[in-house]
Specification:
The protein is an all-alpha fold. 73% of the residues lie in helices and 2% in strands. Among the domains are: 56 residues, no CATH class; 38 residues. The protein has a three-stranded antiparallel sheet, with no helix packed on it. GO terms for molecular function: iron ion binding.
Length: 392
């Protein structure tokens, strides 16, 4: 007996028992002897389907036994929820539509059925239908927070970031939770759309608004730096990257090539060296150390660069740094030692390449790509570079 079958049986036995009880009770008032036997037969047929591991037929039987009234609405809703969780969204939709169509259904029961139907439409990917239902339900205090949350999910799926911002701001005032990270990232997504449409001024405004909402939003400063650099404004780009360094030095590794490009365009190698030195003093990443080593290599020698990396590895061991050190030694190694160093390099390189570079601080999802929204738990701004031996 599978796990799914067990849960179905647990869920449906109370439904069967309640259905038998309700119809047996009603039958007593109508025609006690004649009707009760018929209802009992259907009830036991449903139980027989359950016992013979035929849950679909059992569900159909029990649904036919239910009459929609104030005492069975919750049972219908529970069945619809069960259908949806099993992936039978069409059946859930039909059941909830049938409930809503009943003229005798109490107003509050109708609202519950509308909410469940909206969730059915979400599961089916019918976002336009779900949107209209949740818009109706946000007028109801009891269902406002849930409806706003679902609308926020819809606008994320449809990439309507302006509406996502509006709904998220409403939700924050209703559920009294902190949605700053989400709203800031919605503004960043909106800025990306505006950049693609060459609306540069509007994009800057959206990114500025993101930082007003969440002053820890590193994405906004990364985007501002990229935008300024693409517009031929390296000095302005550096300003944004320096703000990023103050926000979170862990993300400097993401923009180091762009920072180097800024200093190259400004013809300020001394400034670049000072920037790297300052970043390392603030607890910079391995990428910062390696960038500084490349400067030493170009200005002085490979030996200076190798000695610097070795010194840094003693304080902050990392596979990334070790690989660079071995690479430098391979170039100057004697012919007898070179094959061994090359083998060591390949082994460590394969080990390093198999490891994730980023990790979600909320669910632990690891990846080689920086996602602003975690693919695992869907949290915004929770994916960060991994630090330590196997990371930065």
């Amino acid at each position: 007996m599978t796990e799914l079958w067990f849960y179905l049986m647990v869920a449906l036995l109370p439904v069967a028992a309640f259905s038998g009880y309700r119809f047996g009770r009603r039958a007593k008032h109508k025609h006690e002897t004649a009707t009760q036997g018929g209802l009992s037969k259907r009830y036991f047929v449903g139980l027989n389907f359950l016992l013979n591991e035929q849950p679909d037929k059992a569900i159909d039987t029990f649904v036919k036994m239910l009459e929609v009234d104030s005492e069975t609405v919750e049972t219908h809703l529970a069945l619809g929820n069960l259908f949806r969780k099993r992936g039978e969204v069409d059946r859930a939709i039909r059941l909830h539509q049938n409930l809503i169509a009943r003229p005798s259904l109490a107003p509050e029961s109708r609202k519950m059925a509308l909410l469940e139907l909206g969730l059915d439409y979400m599961a089916a990917g019918l976002f336009d239908r779900a949107e209209s239902l949740f818009k109706e339900l946000i007028l109801e205090p009891r269902h406002k927070a849930t409806s706003l949350h679902q609308l926020m999910l819809i606008y994320q799926q449809t990439k309507d970031w302006q509406k996502a911002v509006s709904v998220a701001e409403q939700l924050q005032s209703v559920d009294h939770k902190d949605h700053a990270a989400e709203i800031a990232n919605f503004y960043c997504e909106l800025a990306d759309q505006q950049i693609s449409q060459h609306q540069i001024k509007s994009a800057y405004q959206s990114l500025k608004r993101a930082l007003q909402i969440d002053n820890t939003c590193v994405r906004a400063n990364i985007s501002r730096g990229e935008l300024a650099l693409s517009q031929g404004q390296p000095k302005q780009a550096l300003k944004y990257y320096k703000e990023l360094a103050k926000q979170n030095p862990e993300f400097i590794s993401e923009v180091l090539p762009s920072i180097q490009q800024c200093f190259i365009q400004l013809r300020d190698q001394k400034g670049y060296r000072q920037f790297l030195s300052s970043s390392m003093q603030q607890g910079g990443s391995t990428s910062t150390v390696l960038a500084y080593a490349d400067l030493l290599r170009s200005e002085k020698s490979d030996r200076e660069a190798a000695d610097f990396i070795a010194q840094q590895l003693q304080e902050k061991p990392s596979l990334k740094g070790l690989l660079k050190l071995i690479e430098l030694h391979i170039e100057h190694a004697q012919s007898s030692a070179k094959p061994s160093l090359q083998i060591l390099y390949r082994i460590i390189s394969r080990s390093f390449e198999s490891k994730p570079v980023y990790r979600c601080s909320h669910c632990g999802f690891g990846s080689k790509t920086l996602f602003w929204q975690c693919p695992g738990c869907k949290h915004w701004g929770s994916v960060k570079p991994i630090l330590g031996l196997e990371g930065e």
